[in-house]
Task: inverse folding
């Protein structure tokens, strides 16, 4: 099928609504994504928790990467509501040869939340 | 020596000071970087112009990538003054095993201008 996709999730991201003694928003987003992915057996996605993607002013934040495809970084994600939206968006991404999903098809969260994109690594790098 | 570093430069970035009929700020930064790199023979850096890194609100923008190292995206760069600063910062980056330069050693432009960072791709991806 398609190449595997890695979904990096910043678990350090804070939110103003974080409980003082509870997990941070980024950790909650990570857990929500893991649960949502478990409900999609066979999805070619690996979730990797990361300590800081350096997008601290736009929590929660993820990065989506795959060999031969553009890497995308997204911010302003809601840990309570965005897990399935993110996985749907990654499904579209995984269905493209280069990672570039037509603008109209992208989830609203990806259109508004895009932080940066980076070209695919050179093949022989 | 060290692995090659790719410096992606957004040539689409605009600046309020852009002349109406002249090259955009991003294109000027690209040209300045190419000239500065030409004055450093042997530097293990390749410059790649890119049409849009999706950091449009923080022009000018570059991304720094290398196999096995973290990728960094930087914005708010001045096309007139930052070319050598960027190349100096890449020199430090190229001297690390993982791309993580100690905070104190990073150029001020990289500290303030960091937009995002992405982990190295998994070795067997």
Result:
């Amino acid at each position: 099928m398609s190449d595997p996709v890695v979904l990096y999730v910043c678990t350090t991201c804070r939110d103003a609504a974080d409980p003082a003694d509870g997990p941070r928003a980024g950790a909650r987003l990570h857990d929500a994504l893991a649960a949502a992915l478990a409900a999609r057996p066979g999805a070619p996605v690996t979730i990797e928790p990361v300590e800081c993607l350096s997008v601290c002013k736009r929590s929660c934040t993820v990065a989506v990467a795959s060999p031969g495809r553009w890497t995308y970084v997204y911010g302003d994600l809601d840990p309570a509501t965005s897990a399935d939206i993110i996985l749907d968006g990654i499904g579209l991404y995984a269905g493209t040869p280069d990672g570039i999903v037509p603008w109209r098809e992208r989830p609203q969260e990806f259109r508004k939340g895009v932080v940066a994109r980076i070209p695919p690594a050179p093949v022989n790098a």
